[in-house]
Design brief:
This protein is of the alpha/beta class and 441 residues long. It is 30% helix and 23% strand.
């Protein structure tokens, strides 16, 4: 995340003394169990520090961002100094971001500052545009990679995309914060990536677990040596126990992370394998879906996050994801609260092969074909791979129609899916456009 007090900090040219200091810092890091001392601080001290920063962040958002000026018109920022007070603020919903940005381009009134303070602008499916400020590790991935096993000098093979979406670049900055050089592999080009892995011998994989499986299996099939890969930091899709076990049998120990393009990292898995530890410098609430009402520890609800990003000060940002707070502390020594993990979506938007699929995209695909009546996208998992099937009520039939609908689905979602024509009146009349039929452990 962007440091709270570094809005106007100037970039200093590194002197030999600075470089020596940085070298010493990284040398000291190699002996640490945790990324920094924040991870093991007293929970009450952490909570007090977060609440002490909250009024200033609310005041900053209200004074600098048009959206929050409207939303918090009657809010007194100094009074927002506890979780109870925070819970009284309205939610800002991710599911409404695309429409909000279309009405108030380019950032829906959420940017707190001038465009010239930004370093990067990303685009995620929706479309949703996310601004990012300058600064080291502004997505918080250094902490994630450390927990996954990365240490200074490890080469990181980063297979997240660098094009438009933020994951590739945020991982890159996080790895550099540790002292890890990065191979910017991106997505696809499997055989070329295998040659790079064989030649450069990276120790750390970053990307989706499904693509890691493809690389390891294809490497064995083609005779490429992938044995240098020992640890994997995976995200953007579910990691069921069967897939984790399969990846370990292929030589790579994996740890999950959870975040969003707007917020950066929210939580991450450690070697304790007991939930996901919430990142430092963020406030996470679990609320009853459809409301802003906080739920008790252990209750499943929607993940709502507040961050201290001064450029993009998201307050009570409703992610649409479901999770729950685990009781107690992690055996790994980190003292922050933990999430049970990603438990599905609070709305119909779902993630397929690492990409969000929105009901509106499915509707757009179906509307291109007058032969279609009611329709429903069903997402399943086969052999630990996501599969989506668009079921369409239609009196017509034929391979030409099936092919045309499939092409429309691909154009709308940027993903390939099956198409199944079913008799009129056979789909449930419940208003559901997307059905996630996968099982989440």
């Amino acid at each position: 995340m962007i440091p709270d007090d570094d809005d106007d900090a100037e970039i200093e040219v590194s002197s030999p003394t600075c470089l020596l200091g940085e070298f010493a810092r990284r040398e000291a890091m190699t002996t640490r169990t945790h990324f920094d001392d924040k991870e093991t601080q007293d929970p009450q001290a952490r909570e007090a520090a977060l609440m002490a920063r909250l009024p200033s962040q609310v005041a900053h958002a209200k004074s600098k961002a048009a959206h929050f000026a409207r939303l918090l018109r009657d809010v007194d920022p100094p009074a927002i100094s506890s979780r109870q007070a925070l819970a009284r603020l309205p939610l800002t919903r991710k599911s409404e971001m695309s429409a909000q940005q279309a009405k108030d381009p380019p950032f829906g009134g959420l940017l707190a500052g001038a465009i010239d303070q930004l370093s990067t602008i990303f685009q995620s499916p929706g479309p949703i545009y996310e601004p990012a400020g300058a600064g080291p590790d502004h997505g918080g991935f250094g902490r994630v990679l450390w927990a996954a096993g990365a240490r200074p000098g490890d080469i990181v093979h980063n297979t997240f995309s660098y094009h438009l979406v933020p994951a590739g670049l945020l991982v890159h900055h996080g790895a550099n914060a540790i002292g890890c050089p990065v191979i910017p592999a991106g997505v696809g080009n499997t055989e070329m990536q295998l040659k790079v892995i064989e030649h450069l011998k990276p120790r750390i994989y970053v990307g989706t677990p499904s693509f890691l499986k493809i690389l390891l299996q294809k490497g064995r099939e083609l005779g490429n040596d992938t044995s240098s890969l020992k640890r994997g930091s995976v995200g953007a899709e579910a990691l069921p126990p069967s897939l984790r076990k399969e990846l370990e049998s292929l030589g790579v120990v994996t740890r999950q992370s959870y975040g969003t393009a707007e917020l950066g990292i929210i939580a991450y898995e450690t070697d304790a394998l007991e939930g996901l530890v919430i990142a430092e410098d963020v406030i996470v609430e679990i609320v009853r879906p459809g409301t802003g009402d906080p739920l008790a520890e252990g209750e499943v609800g929607e993940v709502v996050v507040t961050v201290f990003n001064r450029h993009y000060p998201l307050l009570r940002f409703a992610t649409g994801d479901l999770s729950a707070i685990l009781p107690g502390r992690s055996p790994c020594g980190r003292t922050n609260q933990r999430l049970r993990g990603w438990l599905g979506r609070a709305d119909q938007t779902t993630k397929v092969k690492g990409m969000f699929v929105h009901p509106g995209q499915v509707s757009d695909a179906a509307k291109r074909h007058k032969e279609i009546g009611r329709f429903r996208l069903v997402v399943t998992s086969e052999n630990n791979a996501d599969v989506m099937t668009l079921k369409c009520e239609s009196a017509a039939a034929g391979e030409a129609l099936v092919k045309a609908i499939g092409e429309s689905l691909n154009a709308a979602t940027k993903l390939r899916g099956r198409v199944e024509l079913v008799p009129p009146g056979s789909l449930p009349n419940d208003g559901k456009v997307i059905e996630d039929a996968r099982s989440y452990a």
